[in-house]
Amino acid sequence: ILVKAHLIIDKADQLNKFQKLIAKAEKTFQFSANYTSGVVLERNSLLNLAIIEKRHKISKWLIEEKGADIESCDRGSFTPLMNAAWAGDKHMVRYLLAKGCCRVKVGFNHSSKGLASSTFKGLTAEGWARKRGHDGVAELIRLGL
Known about the structure:
The protein is mainly α.
């Protein structure tokens, strides 16, 4: 299911196609939108995958209709807010902040990169935004706007 969902997310923000897949998975396998695999897709939730690809319709649907966990994290402890900050996605950062996500959690490495060294202390979403050159997004996070 995660791989099929990722293929849809990767192509476009095709909410209808995505909804059909999730509905079938829920009916057939009692699938939860918060499911993560210990092996597949760097332990990313569907929400993290949608945010990584800037799929706003799918992301909002997962949160508002399926109760997706806005604090879910991948193998590098990246939350949806950190993924939005990494991408410089100001719209999604504001949305997640309005939903009350935590601004002070620390992530150690993005799923697109290799594992960080054992001495790396990690960064918050604000820190990742600054590291990636998204200073405006970093300020939004710092201020909680």
